[in-house]
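Slide 14.
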Amino acid sequence: MLSRVAESLYWMSRNLQRAESLARIVDVAFNRTVDRNVAGRQQATAMWRSVLGLVGVPGDDAYPGGSRFATDAFALATFSREHHSSIVSCIHIARQNAASVRAELSSEAWEAVNALYLFIEKQSPRAVVRAGPSSLLREIRDAGVAFGGIVDATITHGEEWNFLQLGRYLERAAMTSAILQTHDEADDSVPEWQRILEMCCASEPFARTLRHSNDPHDALAFLLLHRTFPRSVRYCTVEVDQALHRLSETQPGTFSNEAELVTGRLAAMLDFVRLAEIVDDGAVGFSRRLAGRLAEIGTSVEATYFPLVPAA
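Slide 15: predicted structure.
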């Protein structure tokens, strides 16, 4: 496969996954803060600052807060064209990449991406805020989830599918680690960890797996280390590792390139790390280290499969 085709598939998948994740994150934040009174605004503003950090808005001065903090931050996180990680920007980038490799996609996959793009283009921040943003955000979230199912059902599981898998699961792992970095380590309350679980689409799976548990360490372990939850960092890392080995046709447990090496190292660390070690490091500190490892995987994937070719 041409590297430019592989790269477009990879970034299309990453950006659709990011749009889906951000839609869920923004929906949780809006529902938790829109009705806060003055006494709760400081905490709510802190939550929105963390959301905007996930979107790539730098520094506290970029968003002053105030009485309209929820609606203003929602509009910025969702509709900003300036920040490439806003929901609208991610959908635009994904659609551009999909258009460039339309021949490699099934008609159903292309139509799903294009329909999401056309849907978001019809929206305006003012009208959405007036009507309530949850409907819009859930439409985006559900479209992102549906795209994964469409791809799995309509594309042969060869090179194209494996690059889509790489983008999907690497982005999921990166977003889970990023959400964990927003944790207020001075607050290990049930509402704080419920917020994090909801943002990671983990609230119901966690409740079913560990019934009646209110232990924050259980929630942390679930998000980082669970073997079958499809958004845990461990699960996503294994999926990335398997996709890389399918692409290179290298036996599992070995490596043939830098991407497989750094992914295998992270997978092994997550297999053998003890929860006590994570707790000693702190959820935020450990997640920062994970984010660095995941960024290294992304860089090595790009260097291995999408190398820059000097102009003649």
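Speaker note: Residues 157-312 form one domain.
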